[in-house]
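Issue 218. Parser rejects a valid record. Input:
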Amino acid sequence: MRKKFRLSLERVILLLFIMIVLLLAWSNSMPIKLFYPVAVLSFIGVVAGLFLPTIASTWLVILSFFVGIFLVILGYMLIPVWERAVLVLVLPTVLALSSLVKKKAGITANVKLGANEIFDYIGERDLTTNLWGIDEAENFYNRCIRFLRKADMSTSTAWFSATLIYWSHSEQYYHIDSDETDVVLKTLAKLLKNSRLPSERIFYLNEGYFLILGPVHNQKVLDELNNQSLNEMSKVNFRTDEDRVGIQFQLTDLIITKDNFKRYERLGLIIKKLTREQEMKLVREYQ
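Output the parser choked on:
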């Protein structure tokens, strides 16, 4: 199969530059000096091609070509036929190449923009769990805190809940089998999505930590949701070559209101509190 030749942006610019240089050199070497007419027509073609809309540039190419032919045929010109033909073609050719440069540059810019958006998306989302990451969690948490800060004390909706679920010893599991760890994380993320309220936001903070933020203000309701999530997640096993190993979780939660939000105005503070409570639970279990 023959490889198709495609004009890149750099090739079009180089072709346009070479053509203008050759035209100017040619026009300056003619017995009848055509340097200034060619230079003016080239300048008009470049400016119009780069700055006019694509449709306008297309019509201008067609119009300039036919107007040039009309003037050459009907006008009285003391210029040889070959030179006349070149003068007719200068403006539409330079205009067409300049429009192509603008089009190629626009495509390149769109491709770069698309690539940047992809990288931004990858940076915001965890590729394994397909959940929002720490940056988006921080942005959402800050919006919740701003709402509490502005809300009136009597507002009954001035609260939100934070739940932190940790897959115990997930780092050790990762060292045993990283692929199986990814499979487990994907499964846990899917179970969390199915077991939580639609209004709750689920984030993955890396190293086995899942953070859930949502408008749950009743501790009993929050406990029921958390128990439901833990029951579903506890059914997941870590598969090895020899056996299936059950995994364990640690869960802590807190309802943030107008009364206590000043102690947790940053996401790092609430995560620190919830992880400390998980560590204290472990200490009490081993006592």
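Fixed in the parser; the record now loads. The longest helix spans residues 81-124.
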